[in-house]
Batch of 3 targets.
Target 1
Amino acid sequence: MFDPDSLKSFLSVIDTGSFVAAADRLRLTQPRVSQQVAALERELGVVLFDRSKRPIRATDAGRALSGQARRVLEVMADARTSMDPWRTRAQGVVHLGSYPSVSAAFIPALLRRQAEREPDVKVVLTEHSTLELDAANRRGEVDLYLRPLHPEPPEHVGSLPLWREPLVIVHALDHPLSRIPDPVPLTEVAAHPIISIGRLEDADSADFEAYRVFRERGLNLVPVQATDQPQTLVSLAASGLGVGVTNWLATRTADTSDVRVRVLEEGLERRVALCWDSSRPFTPAVRSVHTAISEADIPEGTSTLSTLNHERDLSSHTL
C-alpha cells in the first residue's frame, strides 16, 4: 500500500524540481525526502526521476504517477473530511501570516472569535511584508496568510478574495495638494515627490498597486522613499518629504493627526485575499481558521470582493 508521506514527497519534488526545495516545503530533511522517493521507486519497480537533469525532471513513469498520486491524496483527504461530524473539536496549531495594516485592523477580532469558537486551536501570528509572506509560505512557515492580490500570488498558491479597499494619499497639513478638492486626480499627485509601499529600488515592489495604477495612466512612479510600515509612511509624509500613496487600512491603523488623508479618483484600490499553499492539504485546525476568516466581518471602510473569477484551488484541501 502506498505511503501517503512518500506520495507527498514525490509530488513536492515534481512541483519544485528539487529534492532540497521539496524538503524545505515539507519541513523535512533532504535525505528524508530522498529516502521516501527511493522507497516509492522500489515499491513500484520504476524510476520516477531523471536525476542527471537540473532541475530534476520526472520520467514518463513519474509523470504518469503524478496525476494518480494527487487523486489518491485527494481521496484520503475526502475520507478524513467525511469523519468531521464525529470529531468533537478541531485541535492543533495554525500559523497565520499577515502584514501590518491587516494585523491591526482585522486580526484582533478574528482571533478573539476563533478562541471562543475553537479553544483547542492555537493560532500563531506571523507578520511580514507581502513578498516575505510568500517566501514564508514557500518554506512551510505559515499555513494561511493574508496578502494583497497584487503582486500576483505565486504559482501553487490558492486564494480566497476577501475585500477591496481604496488607495489613498497622505500629505502634510500645509501641502499644496490641500488646495485640490477630493477626489484627488492621480495626475496632480504625480507632480510631487512620492512615498510608496514596498522597498526603494526593489524591482519586486514595481508590482504593487501604487506602481501599477501610475503605469496604467501613463505616469512614471519613482518614489523618494518607500516603507512597509504604515506609521513610518505617515511620519515621512508629515515631515514634508513627499506624498504617501497607500491603502486605506494603513491610515486607519496609524496616527494621522499631523497629516491629511485624501481620497484618490475612483477605481484605485487594493484587493485583499486569504492565501495558502495549494499543494498542502488542510488539517482540521487549518480548515477551522480558514472558515473563520471567510465568515468574518470585513474591516470598516472596505467592501466585499466577489469571489467570481478570483478563487483559486480551494477544493479538496483537508487532511
Target 2
Amino acid sequence: MQVLFLNRLNDEWLQKMEQMKNKYPHVSFKTRQDGTLDDLLRSAHVIVTGRLSAEHIHKAENLRLIIVPMAGVNALDWHAIREKKIEVCNCHSNAFAVAERAIALALALLGRVVEYDRDLRYGVWHGYAVRGGEQDYWTSLQRKRVCIVGFGHIGQNLARLLEPFSCEIVAVKRSAPKVKDRVTSDLDWAIETSDVIFITLPLTKETKNLFNRERLFKMKGKFLINVSRGELLDEEALFESLRDGVLAGAAIDTWYVYPSSEKECVLPSRFPFNTLRNVVMSPHVGGYCPEASRGLMNETFEILEKYILTGELTNRVDPEWEY
C-alpha cells in the first residue's frame, strides 16, 4: 500500500510519518517531494489532501481512499469520485475551535467590540462618557433565541458553549421532522423565530445559495454568524441586506474571494463589506489554532492507521450528500 500526503506538512506531520514508517514497514509513505506528481498519483492507494481535481483523480488509477485532514470536502471533484467509486473520510477534531470562534465572533458583533475599538483609536467615544443615547447600546447574547443551522460536530459544540448564556436554542437538521420544535428541518420558521443565526453547514450542491436573496431579506433585525462556507449565502444579497439595514449585523469567517500565490493581498468579496460598520470580518481562521491543527493531524493518522490495520473507514463521507 502507498500513502501519498499532498497536504501542507510541518515538522509534527513529518515526525508522525516517520513513526508510521517504523510501525508499518510494508506501507510506503510519500510526500510531494518524493517524485513527479503524475508518478506519485499513479501509485497511490490512499491520498491525504483537502483538494483534488478530476484530472488528478483519474491519474490516480489505484486510488481507493481520500482522507481529508479537515471537515470541508467541497474542494474535491465529487463527480470523478463517484465515477471511480473512491471512498472519502474527513476529520472533525477542529469542531470545538470553530465553535469557540463562532462565539467570539457573535460576542464581537453583538457587543460592537470591533466597531468601538476602531472609533476609540481615533478618540471617538460612545456610551456613558459622552452621554450617548440608545444608538450607543450594544446587544447582550444572554437569553436570546438562537438558531443553529447545521447541527453536526460544530453545531453541537456551539450549543454547549451557549449554555452559560441561557439561550433558547433551535437546531436545524436536514434529517429532522419539519415541526415547530427545538430540533427541526423547518429552516424558515427557525430563522423567523430567532434573534441570532449561526451557520455551520457544509457546502454541498444542496446547501449552495441556501441563504438566497428572498431568505436574507426576510431576516429583519437579526444577527448572522457564518463559520461554514461563503457560497451558502448569496454574496450580493448579503451585502445589500447589511447595507440597507435589513440584517442587524453579520460576523463572517468564510468568504468569496481568497488570496492566491500571485495575489496575496485581496479583499474577500466583490462587494465592499469592509465599509460597513455592522460587519465583523474574520479571514477564515475558525480552526486555525495549535490545538485544532494538532487534533486534525492526530485524527488523520488515526483514520489512516485503522484503515491500514482493518480496512475499516472512520468518518466516511456520503458521496451522494457530499458530507
Target 3
Amino acid sequence: MTLLNLYNNTVFLNKQLPATIMFLKNWCIVNVTGIDSIQYLNQQFTLDVNTVNHNTYQVGAHCNYNGKVWSPLLLLKYKKDYAYIIQSEIALKQINELKKYSIFSKVDIFLNKNIILFGFAGFGIKNILLNYFSSLPTKSNNIIYYDDVIILRLEFPTERFLMICMTRKSYVFFNSIAKNMLISNDLQWKSLEIESNFPLMNILTCGRFLPQSLNLNYWNAICFNKGCYYGQEVLFRYEKKKINKLDIQILIGKSDILPIVGSSIKHRDKMKNIYNAGIVLASVKLLNHQILLQVCMKKIFCKKYYSFYSSQDHINKFLFFS
C-alpha cells in the first residue's frame, strides 16, 4: 500500500492546517491543442488568453451565451498549447459545451487522463518543498515548469501550491515526499478553496450564475477589451450598470446535517419572516461537527450580524466566517 492510500479525512481550517499533501481526484486537466487554440479560447473564455505564458497562469470562466458560468477555470500553457484545470464533476458537461462551436476551427479538446493533481498547503509547506525543488512560483511568476511537474502558486487563503504530475515517475516521487507531511484528500483542498472565496461548481449549479455573482471579477477573470466572446454583452451590461445583486459569502456553523449543494440558505428576521437568502455552492465538514459553506447570497442579506440556517436543518445557525 502506498502512502497516498492512507488518507487523513480530518479537514482543518487554514490557520490550523499542518503541512499537508492532498490527492485531488475531483479536479482534472483539459487540454486544448491546435493552431486555432488561442483564437478559439478567446472567443469562449472570459479572460484574455494572450496574457497566459510560461511565467503566468490566469483565472477565467467559460460562459454560455446568456453569460452564465459553466465553470471557473485556471488556464495555463501546456507544452506548446494550452490546458485548464476544472472540477471533475462538471468536466464532461463543460467540454461538450466548449466543443459545440469548434467544428470550423482547428482545435482538439480532450480530458487528459495521464496526469495526477496534488495540492500542497499548511504550516512550513514552502520550506519543505524547497528541499525537493530548486525554486517555487512567486506572486509575479505564478507557475514553474520542471521535466515531470508543473507547479502553480495560489495566494489565498494563504500561500499554497497545486502540482500537475505528468508521469508515473512523479507519482513515485510524491509517495516519497509525503513522508514529511500529513496526507489528505480533496475535501481539504475544497475547504481551502471555500476560504479563499474561489467559486466551486457542480452539475446542479453550473450555468446558473454570472461571473460577477461568483466574485470572479475580483480574480481579474473577466476581460472587456479583447473582442467578442460568449456572454460578453450581458457581462458588460451588468458591469456598467452595477446591477449584480449576488455575492459569494462564507458561512460557518455546527450541524449533523451537511447542506446539499444547490439547496437554499434561509434567514429569519425579528418578525419571524423567512427569506431565501442564497444558494449553497459548496459544503465541507470540519473538526468538532463544524461545517463550512460557500453561498451565492443576495447582497441585501450580506450583513455581518445576520444568522442563517439551511433548508435541511432549521435549528442550527450559520454565521459569517471571518
